[in-house]
Structure formats: C-alpha cells, structure tokens
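Here is one chain, start to finish.
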Amino acid sequence: MFFLFICQIKWITKMKRFDAIRPFYDTEINDGILKVIDHPMMKALMNFCFPKVEDEIWKEQLKKTHSIRDFQCNFIYYGVKQVLEKSSEGLTTSGFEKLDNNTSYLYISNHRDIVLDTTLLNASLFEHGKLMTSSAIGDNLVKKPFLRILAKLNRNFLVQRGLAPRELLVSSKLLSEYMAQLMLHENRSVWIAQREGRTKDGNDETNPAVLKMIGMGSDEQNLMDYFKKIKVVPVSISYEYDPTDALKMPQLMAENNNEIYIKEKNEDIMTLLSGIIGQKKRIHIHIGDILETEIDDIKANYDTTNKQIQALAQVIDDSILGNYKLWPTNYIAYDILHKTTKYQHLYTENEKSLFERRLEMRIDHCNPFALQSFLAMYANPVVNKLKYENVI
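Its structure:
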C-alpha cells in the first residue's frame, strides 16, 4: 500500500511539470467553460457554430459539458461544418483507411493555416472514427486569456516561443516528454507542424530541428526505434485558395530586404480570423503511410543521429510533397509566373479569370517582388510535385 502511495506521488509530481503547457484535464473543462461562457468572443463563436439557436440554449448545453471530446464533437465540429459551408467548396480526404481506430499516431503535417490545418484534420479523424489529436500551438497565438482557455478546451498544448537558448533547451525537453506521455502512456495522437510557423512561399519542408525536439523524449538507445514506436504519419493538406495569401506578403518582403519583420498589433488574430472566414474553395487532406520500413532503412543505412534525423526529414518531405493535391490555381500560377501555357489543359478560362481577379485585388502590381512571391506561393507546389511524380 505504501509503495502504491509513493508511486502515485511520483506520478502526480511528474504530471505537474506539464501544467504550464498542457490542455485542460476533463475534470477542469466545466470550470474553464464557465470562465468564458459570457465572453463576447464565446457568443460570437457559438452564434457562428449555431446561427439559428438562441443564446440560452447553447449556454445551457455548454454548462453541461464535462469533457474535451464533448466540447469538440458537440460544438467545435459544428463550427467546422459552418466554415466549410460558408467559405469553401468542400473538404475531401484520402488515406484514413490506413489508420487503426484505437491507435495513437504522431501526425507531422505541412502548415498553411494557424487554426484550420489541425481543426480540419480532427474533424476528419472524428468522421472516420479515429482518435483525435492533441495539437501543438505557439503560445504567442494565445496570449489573450479567452484564446488560451479556448485552446486548452480544444486539447492544444503550448509551444513556448521567444526563449533564450538555455530556456529553449529546457522547454524543448519538457515539450518532447509531454508528447511522449500523450502517445505512449495516454494513447493520444499528437499533431505538430513540420516547421515553426506557416509555409509562406509554397515550399513545404520539414525542419530537422522539430524532429530533434521530438526525439528528446526518446526512451530508446537508437532514436529511430523511438520514431518507429510513436508511429510517424506524414499529412498533406492543400487549399485551392489560401485565405491568408496576401497577409503573408509583408513578411516575405521584409525577409527579401534583409529586414527584421515585426508583426502588427493583433496581426495573429486577424490572420486567424481571415483563415476561418476567407474563401478557400476546395480543400484536401491526405494521410500518408505510417513510416515503418522507411525508418528501418534509415537505421540500417545511417550511423549517426544527425544523419538519421536528416534522412527522416527527407522521407517526411517525400510523403507530404508526393501526396500534395494540386489544384487549378497551382497550375495557373505556374503558367503565369513562367509565361507559359504548359498546363492550360488542367484549368478552364473561367478559373484563370477568377485567379487573375484575385491577384489584381490582393497584390500591388507595381511591386514586382510581391507579385512574383504571390504567384510562387501557388506555383511552387507544382515544381515540388514534379520531383516525385510524373503525373502532370
């Protein structure tokens, strides 16, 4: 009995280490909801999710909510359906049949939209009867109390940004251990982007530093054994229209001029809202193969951890880019950028006219760099896809 008591104390002490970054436990959900139920942003969110429902009705239902799953399935899921109905022409999926219903995975995804990437994936996992994810989100995005509570209600865990090198090392170790706790001990899938920040130039590329951070939670002698154990699944998500395409231009221009980009006040919030309400047209999510034989090959052929990490990053890129769904907008941008008609058989004149109108409305044509960057954002996936498949 005393031994069990000591083990319980050790477990509680271990878990308290994660308090600064973890989402709510189910026992904390109702208290979290009650703190924000009368907040204007909660009213706006619920009115968006349930446009024909009186406030008192959704408030009563929220007050009866006592788990993250109930909050996600009974409220956020309907918000996703509204987003798709009002600002898209539909979401399609492929590859979900590869997943076991009761197994946790590490989903490593390209990253185009702050909220939608992981929200759409979770909605798709829910519809396919799979385990939903706990998802990484930068703490810079949830500084306001309401947003932090909402993130914790949605099973987001925090990635701490803007730390000094020594603090970053400690934070990365904690984050990696928390992800390991979720996947190996709680049977909870995890979503993380392949790099810090959204892709702004259309080139989806895995940052090996992300994999090194994940690997800090390893309990295996060889790091590849750990990555095999946590079941890495690359995910490709593509939007026909990026609703935040023009908003990405200022940072690209600053980087081109070797300037430090400083975000405007509330810029992240505006980007988040633009992603939700902005037109996306069609969206596709593809689940890649679970990386097993690929990881075995890496372990057999590379003798250092750094080489193994680099090789794993390349395998993830191969899957994400090879399975990325191209849309007419990608081919149109490629042809305009390269002054060719090479892919005109893959889009209609009407689709081209709509894209050109969007380009005219969102980009200053007197700024050649902005114009080229906007086109490249859509055209680069075509170039990247050509490296993997001769299907165009």
